[in-house]
Amino acid sequence: MFVTDMGDVDGMLFVFEDAAPRSFWMRNTRLPLDIVFFDAAGSPVGDYLMAPCPDSSTECPGYPSDAGAMFALETVAGVYDFAAETLDVSSVP
């Protein structure tokens, strides 16, 4: 939140204790981000290009997983399209 610059391949991996429906939003986020949800086996279960949501907005859209997700990966916009062929979260402890 409130980040104004990220490196070309920066991101954040969210690891949850179980696979369940997940949803993220972009309030107070100033950069467009990709998000990809993965199930417990590491298979993608939803992806979005998330647009920034103005700081003053109380109605930011949600970006839900299509199925139960155990992982969510947020990256700089465009990284997922570039790295989708080699991305593997199945070995995350």
Number of DSSP helical runs: 1
Biggest beta sheet attributes: 4 strands, antiparallel
SSE series: EEEEEEH
**Annotation, overall tally of beta strands:** 6
Principal-axes geometry comes out as globular
Multimerization state: single chain
- The pLDDT mean sits at 83
Strand order of the largest sheet: 1-6-3-4
Helix content: under 10%
Please compute the radius of gyration using only Cα atoms. Answer: 13 Å
β-sheet strand percentage: 35-45%
Alpha-beta content class: mainly beta
- Unreliable stretches covering 5 or more consecutive residues: none
Our count of domains comes out at 1
CA(first)-CA(last) distance: 26 Å
Task: Tell me what the structure shows.
The protein has 93 residues and is mainly beta. The protein has one domain. Helix content is 5%, strand content 40%. The protein has 1 helix and 6 strands; from the N terminus they run ββββββα. The chain has one helix at 79-83, and strands at 11-20, 23-25, 33-38, 44-50, 62-64, 69-76. The strands form 2 sheets. Strands 1-6-3-4 form a 4-stranded antiparallel beta sheet, with no helix packed on it. A hairpin with a 5-residue loop joins strand 3 and strand 4. The chain is globular. The model has no long low-confidence stretch (mean pLDDT 83).
